[in-house]
Amino acid sequence: MIENFKQVARSIFNEYVEAWKKSGKFVVGYPCTYVPEEIIHAAGLLPFRLRGIGISSLSVGDTYFGPVICSFPKCVLELAGNKKYSFLDGTVMSNGCDSMRRLDECWRKADKDIPGIRPGYFHYFGVPHKVTDYSLQWFEEEIQLFIKSIEEHFSISVTDQDLNNSIKLYNQGRRLLKQLDQIKIGEDCRITGEDALALVVANTAMPKETYIPILSGFLDNIETTCKIIPGRKRLMIVGSINDDLDFFKVIEDCGAVIVADSMCFGSRTHHDLVEETTDPVKALAKRYLNHAYCPRMFGYYKERLNFIKQKVVEARVDGVILQNIRFCDLHGSENGIFVRDLEAAGIACLKMEREYGPLVESGRVKMRIDAFLEKI
Amino acid sequence: MKRETMEYNYDWNLWTILECASKTNEGFCKEYHNLLKYVPHYGPVLEAFMRFGQPGDIFLKLMAGYMKMCVTSKENGKFTALTSFCMAPPILYAFDIVPMCLEVWTVLGTIVLRRGTTEFLDYCCEVGFTETSCSAQRGALGAYLAGLCTQPDFIVFDSPGICDTNANSFAFASAFLDKPMFQLNSPPTLSDERATKYHRRDFRNLITFLEKQTGKKLDFARLKEIVGEIKRQDEIACELFDLASLVPSPLPGMYDLMLYGGKFMMGGTREYTLLLESMLQTAKGIADKNLSGTLSGREKARALFCYIDHYTTNARFWYWIDEHDISMLGSMLFTFWQKDVVYAKEKQDQTYDIDDSSDEAIIDSLADQVSRMPMVKQIRGPYDAPGMMLDDTLGAARVLNVDFIVYVGTMGCRNTWGVIKCIARDLEKAGYPTLVLYADGFDDRVQSWESITDKLNEFISLRRIGA
Fold first, then answer.
1. Mean pLDDT, rounded, of chain A
2. Nearest-CA residue of chain A relative to B160?
3. In whole angstroms, what is the distance from residue B422 CA to residue B418 CA?
4. Inter-chain CB proximity A98 and B175 less than 8 Å
5. Taking CB atoms and an 8 Å limit, are B130 and A329 in contact across chains?
6. Contact between chains at A330 and B419 (C-beta distance less than 8 A)
7. Which residues on neighbouring strands pair with residue A32, listed in sequence order?
8. Which of A183, B110, B281, B299 is the most buried (most CB within 10 A)?
9. Distance from CA of B327 to the nearest CA of A (A)
């Protein structure tokens, strides 16, 4: 079962998406955890989180983006330029960070040179950087505009009932992933970080109706199907986006197990649930704007620090890896203060900069992890 | 950081240099020229301002005054706010808060000090801030983090939604120094009702924050005086822009730095009005003679910098402009969007106007002004959307009749580096030779000034600009 999830996580176009497309249904991409997937789902479309794995060059990405930009959006554009995203019928762009928001223009521009690489539905979704009554109101309006644009483009109607059903389904998925987190942090760890990451990534690349029963079955049988992983250092990983199983594998092959995280392909996606009893748009706005674990939300450092500290205690973490993709200053800088404050609290930290994409620097990563594990 | 660097406060050190510089014009001309021999490190930068006569002298005095205000703020019992260049200071002055603008302090150190701000840039990295962050803030931020500047009581900035790396510097400072912060937050659009409403509510929230921090209510009488100055300043700036569109342009190259630098430090104060009046009077004199504002009076080509200028030591950027008889018609920093300014004529929906008919109208006007500050206006949304970077650059290029466009930024500028290749293509397509410099406007170590001038000279020669 894990192998099945790993296959999904290691590819862009997977068998589930293929089956979905064959049934005549549409797929809409989205870039980050601030875009409410429930809306896409409620419209009868498959939300698919944009990723950049499996590229072997950046010839398209570097043509449009400048040199000092995070490699993640460049990899996404590279895949788009090579028509690996031709299965998308639409995509949402958002200001998760400045590099990601410029993917909007670069993708549009590249489409003029390589016609057809941009999906027909292309929508910009603006997210405020703080939580106030008026930013929540703005965000709520943005959700309404998003719904309207989907309705118009795909000639469908999204009712409150549809939204409520999607919210319930997505919450169900989140509860299962939280259950997975609980298993990870248990004294007898039965799943590696690499395998857990595969489950989380698959969650963003499969129809929820298919994913939830498989995950549920896996979790029900985990005690019989997965052996206890003994004698490893317990790590928490924090920082920039990572959907690369091999990155986690390199870390764990050094003699560690990743038992906790604060990452957007990780606990940030499922930590908070959407309220099911209020107006669905308001509930979505509240949940998505308030899940302040990404440093794109300025001024919430202490909340993020406390989240890490709490996880460290719960998961009996031996050390924290604070990593960022080069040019991701939001995570990189915050990691700098995390080091100061976590080490002052007696928590061992390793700060590391890396590239997104093919793991060309596994030797360097391995050496640093080895040294860190020796230290702790 | 070197121990000797820790001996002197960065802000105090710079202030004493500029304070002395601002007094050099008080003697005779001969005395001034004799003095230059004794200040070999500072002669060129002093001369960069003084050679423009009265406006340069007033600008030096304005800078020295601003720096003194920052350095002496605590002994004068004033609150201090760490802030950004794109955050218009009038509302802070209305509360009698001293705005300590990071980018201003970085520029001053970069231009005046022989080694620029390198040690402070690096100090930021020593304490965990990324080396890929924006040098415009990092240069001075290092000194603040090291305790080598007057410490802020709180932090106020308006770049979230505009520029992550700018905003991140202030968020980092807030977390590192454990100081309260307030962010004005910009939506991706500017002129629609939704955005206007958002900005105005956000601005009122800022006032509430400032009232809480200072323990004082907003003094509307004081605010009205400031707004009166802003109106006069806007009128003069509009006239200066009208003059800039003349061929040849009678505006000396240094005017762009003086106009925006003055605004970032002392916008809304009498001192800034006096500077603008002097600049206007001088430029009109040059225009009457149908001369260019370059030192030679000739204009070979007209340049527009579509983002920022280059602040290398001794203001060599502006010397280069003059040596090549190039009229420097400004950068994005040079722009402001009062409704009467020449480039805003067909874009009235993107402008602001100061309405002082009531207290509420004043607050709305200031919210509109802040949301149209350089960068805050242009890079909030897609670069090719109306009123954004491409549209504004093309608009300015047409009105000012420019011959070429140059991009200089910082290595930290994700936002502009994200699309500059696309912008350059569009500008070339529109007929404007465009050069993208892979340099850092605040850090010569990325690309030396000598190397940059090679690129500029090569570009001008190859594209036959001014030939």
1. 96
2. A129
3. 9
4. no
5. yes
6. no
7. none
8. B110
9. 28
Amino acid at B334: F
Taking the CA of residue A49 as centre, how many other CA atoms within 13 Å lie in the half-sphere pointing to its CB? Answer: 26
Q: Region A178-203: what's the mean pLDDT?
A: 95
**B interface mutation test: which of A297, A329, A337 has the most B CBs within 10 A?**
A329
Q: Do B420 and A66 touch (CB under 8 A)?
A: yes
- Is residue A321 very low, low, confident or very high in pLDDT (cuts 50, 70, 90)? very high
Q: Tell me which residue range forms the domain holding A89.
A: 11-156
Q: Kindly state whether residue A371 falls inside one of the protein's structural domains.
A: no
CB contact under 8 A, A298 and B188: no
- Mind spelling out the 3-state secondary structure of chain A? CHHHHHHHHCCCCCHHHHHHHHCCCCEEEECCCCCCHHHHHHCCCEEEECCCCCCCCCCCHHHHCCCCCCHHHHHHHHHHHCCCCCCCCEEEEECCCHHHHCHHHHHHHHHHHCCCCCCCEEEEECCCCCCCHHHHHHHHHHHHHHHHHHHHHHCCCCCHHHHHHHHHHHHHHHHHHHHHHHHHHCCCCCCCHHHHHHHHHHHCCCCHHHHHHHHHHHHHCHHHHCCCCCCCEEEEEEECCCCCHHHHHHHHHCCEEEEEEECCCCHHHHCCCCCCCCCHHHHHHHHHHHCCCCCCCCCCHHHHHHHHHHHHHHCCCCEEEEEEECCCHHHHHHHHHHHHHHHHCCCEEEEEEECCCCCCCHHHHHHHHHHHHHHC
Q: How far apart are the first and last CA of chain A?
A: 34
A341 within some domain: no
- The minimal CB distance from B167 to the residues A128, A141, A298 is found for A298
Residues from chain A contacting residue B412 (CB–CB below 8 Å): 68, 329
The CATH number linked to A121 is 3.40.50.11890
- Tell me the pTM: 0.97
CA distance B270 to B276: 10
Residue given tokens 């007057």 in the structure block:
B150
Q: Measured between beta carbons, which residues in chain A are less than 8 angstroms from residue B416? A: 66
Per-residue pLDDT reduced to its tens digit, A241-299: 999 999 999 999 999 999 999 999 999 999 999 999 889 999 999 999 998 689 999 99
How many A-B residue pairs are in contact by the CB < 8 A criterion? 142
Structural domain count, chain A = 1
Q: Is residue A213 part of a domain?
A: no
If contacts are CB pairs under 8 Å, which of residues 70-109 in chain A contact chain B?
70, 73, 95, 97-99, 101-102, 104-106, 109
Q: Residue A67 falls within a domain, yes or no?
A: yes
Residues of chain A with Cβ-Cβ distance to B421 below 8 Å are 63-66
| Nearest alpha-carbon partner for B435 in B318, B303, B314 | B303
Contact state of B175 with A301 under an 8 Å Cβ cutoff: yes
